[in-house]
Amino acid sequence: MDSNPDGKLILVVDDEFDVLSAYTMLFEFRGFRVRTAANGAEALAAVRRERPDIVVSDYMMPVMNGAALCGAMRADAALRDIPFILCSAGILPRDLQPPCDSFFRKPVPFDTLLAEIKQLIGRRG
């Protein structure tokens, strides 16, 4: 088991229950703490309640999509430095503003996502 002794907190945002469940299990197995949200509005409230070390979000969701969530976080001085990974089964507009830290097309191999998370969290160290 590849552990994460610091128990870093990941917020996973997706409107698919199966995705949330799978990521929760995989990240917890690797030693992370995990919180989940089903859309960007829930995620924004969660981020303000308990600051995560990183956010991994789907792009297409009801209520508030991942791009709008990223924009709201980047507009908030208290949240703008939280690393943000956006994932989508579709094509992301080239002019996404503000930009996220990383973008992946779904399905994302878990090892690839995990490596990126560790790199982004490590930068904040």
TrEMBL record:
The keyword Translocase does not apply. Keywords: Phosphoprotein. The keyword Heme does not apply. InterPro entries: Bact_response_regulator (IPR050595), CheY-like_superfamily (IPR011006), Sig_transdc_resp-reg_receiver (IPR001789). The modification 4-aspartylphosphate is found at residue 58. The lineage of its organism: Bacteria, Pseudomonadati, Pseudomonadota, Betaproteobacteria, Burkholderiales. Residues 9-121 form the Response regulatory domain. GO terms for biological process: phosphorelay signal transduction system. This is Response regulator.
